[in-house]
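User: My collaborator sent over this chain with a note saying "see what the structure looks like." That's all I know about it. Can you take a look?
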Amino acid sequence: MNEDFNMSMRKFLKQVGVTSQQAIEEGMRNAADTGGKTFEAKVVLTVDGLDIEHVVTGQITGSAD
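Assistant: Without extra context I'll predict from the sequence alone. Here is the result:
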């Protein structure tokens, strides 16, 4: 792939990572009690014009603080 593609891909993925982390942290702060609880997380990536649906699942454990 060319350099423009690589740069736009990296920029998009960085934005996804940063904004997703911010959203999760805000959700944890706004929740009544997350200490030690485990939450199921899922991200669904689609790209308009391409036949792509990529699903990532995982677990996030709340802080005991």
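A starting point for your reply to your collaborator: The chain has one domain: 3-61.
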